[in-house]
Amino acid sequence: MRKLYDWTIRMAEHHNALWVLAFISFIEASFFPIPPDLLMIPMIIAAPRRAWLIAGVAMVSSVLGGMLGYAIGALAYEGLGQPILAAMGKGDAMEAFNQTFVDAGFWAVLGAGITPFPYKVITIMAGWTGMPLATFIVTSIIARGLRFFIVAGLLFYFGPPVRSFIEKRLGLVFTIFFLALLGGFAVIRFL
């Protein structure tokens, strides 16, 4: 675990780290299962003075990736969206979920954009259900902005103690993060 953490911190300081974060944030919003926080947090810990830039790159890339997810839902639901959602255990429940999502569209995008709930499910659903694109984009900017800038702010202002805590309790931090990630996928299965 320690070697992986040290490697991640070294990679977070690499000159191409922002491009890698942008790529991960983009694909995570439409089909990739790993959240960009895994790279964003070590990047901010390694270079706190760049916290706002890092959060901005994650937000913009995630919203653009969300638009790809929206397009998958709107234009290619049967061929791409359905298999992605089926792989997450939600293929059969989508028809029943459709009306609930339409009724709560803004709040669903906002909630998924902020929480560990996999954002890609909501991006595909927004396109499939025909949520107005402008509503989706504005809500995504708010949600992803809140998520990434709150993390950046916390790490910027409390970075040294957070880094110390993480490094002293790496196993515990990894376990909590992994459980939160699994919890997000479990929520999808049982919705």
Description:
With 191 residues, the protein is mostly helical. It has helices at 2-12, 17-28, 37-46, 51-75, 77-87, 94-114, 119-129, 133-168, 170-190. It has one domain (2-22, 37-190). The protein contains 9 helices and no strands. Helix 3 (37-46) crosses helix 8, helix 4 (51-75) packs across helix 8 and helix 6 crosses helix 8. The longest helix has 36 residues, at 133-168. The model has no long low-confidence stretch (mean pLDDT 78). Keywords: Membrane, Transmembrane, Transmembrane helix. InterPro entries: DedA_domain, VTT_dom. Residues 35-154 form the VTT domain.
Which runs of at least 5 residues are low in confidence (pLDDT < 50)?
none
Q: In angstroms, what separates the terminal alpha carbons?
A: 33 Å
Please count the beta strands (DSSP E, at least 2 residues each): 0
Question: How much helix, percentage-wise, in residues?
Answer: over 70%
Order of helices and strands: HHHHHHHHH
* Structural class determined from secondary elements: mainly alpha
Give average pLDDT, whole number: 78
Assign an overall shape.
elongated
Separate helix tally:
9
Return the domain count. Answer: 1
- Portion of residues in beta strands equals under 5%
What is the makeup of the main sheet?
none
Radius of gyration: 17 Å
